[in-house]
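Final report, closing paragraph on structural work. Over the funding period we assembled a curated collection of sequence-structure pairs, and we close with a single example.
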Amino acid sequence: SAPATVTDAPVDKAQKCNTEECQLPYCFCSKDGTQIPGGLEADKIPQMIMLTFDGAVNLNNYDHYSKIFNGKRKNPNGCNIRGTFFLSHEYSNYQQIQHLAYAGHEIATESISQQQGLQDKGYEEWVGEMIGMREILRHFSNVSVNDVVGMRAPFLKPGRNTQYKVIEDFGYIYDSSITVPPVPVPVWPYTLDYKISHECKSGTCPSKTFPGVWEVPLNTHYVEGFEGGHCPYLDQCVLHNLDENEVFEWLQEDFSRYYEQNKAPYMMPFHTNWFQTKALTNGLHKFLDWVLELPDVYALTVTQMLQYMTDPKELREITTIDAWKCDKSVAVAPKPCNIWNTCALPFKIPEQNITDTRYMETCRECPNVYPWLGDAGGTGISGRDNYIFSGPVQDADGENVDEN
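Its predicted structure, as stored:
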C-alpha cells in the first residue's frame, strides 16, 4: 500500500459526531450540540440547574454558601437543592468542606495550587494537581475518593489531551472546563467520543477521542444587547452597577434562553467575589426563589445531572430517578466534628526560598507541614506521593483505600 502521507489524521483523532454509533448511556453527541438526549421534547423534560462554586472554601464564603443551601430551598420532589464545589487547596478550610460533603454537595477538584499555565504542563503535573487535590480532600475532609469524579481546569484552560488522559486513568467521570462562545441555543453536555461540535474558545481543548468521558461545558452567559458583557463565570460579567432587581432580571433573561428553548442544563458558575457585592448576592437569592417555584426546575449536582442524561426521562417519570431522591443519606463524607483542629503549618513558598505559616482547619490530626504538590498528606517528605492508576483506588502510600 502507498506510504501514509503527512496529512493523514492520526487514528485516534476525534471525528464528527455519528449519532447512529453514539448511543446512551455510554455516548452522547449531536451535530450542533443542542439536541435533547433521548430524543425527548423540551416541554416534557425537567429544566436542570447546576450551581457551581470554584476555588477555596473558607470563612470568606462559607456563610454565603450556607445561605444559598439554607435547607428551605427544595426541588419539586421535596429534596434539598444541592451544588457542586470545584475546590482548590490554598486557604481551604477542610472542616467546612466536610460539612458541605456531609450535606450532600458534590466535591470536585480544581487543582492544589491554581497555577497559571497548567494547560501547557505534562501528565505528571496534572496528576499532581488533580489527584493530589483528591488525596488532600480524602485526608483532611474525609471525602471518599470514589465520590470525587469531576474536575475543572484552573482559569478554564483545559490541558489539551493530557488532562483528559488523567481523567481516564484515574476514574473521573467528567470535566467541566470547556467554554462555549455566545450561541443562540445553549449546548447540552456531551461525551468526548467525537469531535467537539462548537468552537473551542481556550484553544486548548482535546483533539483525541476519550470514549465515555463527559464534558459539561460552560455555556456563555449574556442578555440581548450584551449589557454587562458575556461570561462563562457569572461573576465575570460586569453587573456591579445594577441593583438587585436588575440582577434578578438579568439572570431571568439569561435563564429563559435555556428554559424556553432546548432546556439544556443551566450552569451557574461562581467565584467568591460575586458574594462580595450585596446587589449580586440578593439578586441571586431572588432568582433562586423565583426559579424554584417553577414546577419543572431542579437544582442538582453535576453528577445528578449526568445521571439523568445517561437515562433521560419525561417529567411524569421523574420520581423514578434514584439519583434525585433523598430518602437515603446523600452524604459523601461522615458527620464533621464540632471541635476541629486549627493547624499552624510551615509552608515553603514554591520557587521562593521563604517559609511561611499557613493555617488549616480539619477534623483530622494536624499534618507536619502544609500539604502541597507531591505531599498531599503534609508529611514533610516532599515528592513522596506516587499515584498509581491501575486496579483498585489507592492512596499515596499505594495502599488500597478502605472507603469510609
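The chain has a mean pLDDT of 93. DSSP finds seven helices and 13 strands in the chain. We thank the funder for supporting this effort.
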